[in-house]
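Per your request, structure below.
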């Protein structure tokens, strides 16, 4: 039994469609152990571990506590929902479909004051298998429109990132070698 991770607890609270009730530490553990199937994953943790993870989420503003007649209820906050989207970015995988003869070009102009977002964008473009032609110009022969749209929305830079679909590109022979087409 390892520690309850903040990421795991946040995903659990986000996945539960109803509120996550913390009656007290023992009741929470009992609910996890004997309650509905969607929270059975908590049964291997001690109540103190669950409470510590929830407190960590509260400190970060990813969840909020609300007092109700049922007891103390933990709900995912808007910031927590946004954080869950970031976790999904880690799952991005490049598509290796049959080449349709078109090039996808991603270009961006993210201000220096948002350097962190720019660096994250580059990291995710690289993870998607795009090739860097210049610092802010990336290319791929594979469809990536949905993934790029998702990345720019999650990073909150929708107007700074553009995607073009090209039928021909000047250095196509070099790119075909790079992508082994």
């Amino acid at each position: 039994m390892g520690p309850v991770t903040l990421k795991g607890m946040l995903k659990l609270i986000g996945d539960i469609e109803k509120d996550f009730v913390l009656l007290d530490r023992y009741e929470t553990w009992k609910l996890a152990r004997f309650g509905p199937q969607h929270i059975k994953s908590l049964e291997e943790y001690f109540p103190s571990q669950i409470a510590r993870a929830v407190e960590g989420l509260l400190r970060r503003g990813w969840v909020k506590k609300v007092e109700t007649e049922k007891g103390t209820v933990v709900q995912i906050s808007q910031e927590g929902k946004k954080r869950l989207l970031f976790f999904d970015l880690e799952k991005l995988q490049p598509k290796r479909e049959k080449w349709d003869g078109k090039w996808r070009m991603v270009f961006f102009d993210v201000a220096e004051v948002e350097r962190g977002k720019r660096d994250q964008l580059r990291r995710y473009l690289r993870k998607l298998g795009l090739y860097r032609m210049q610092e802010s110009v990336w290319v791929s022969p594979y469809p990536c429109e949905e993934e790029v749209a998702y990345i720019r929305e999650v990073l909150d830079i929708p107007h700074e990132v553009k995607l073009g679909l090209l039928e021909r590109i000047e250095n196509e022979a070099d790119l075909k070698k790079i992508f082994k087409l």
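Confidence is low (pLDDT under 50) at residues 35-41.

Regards,
D.
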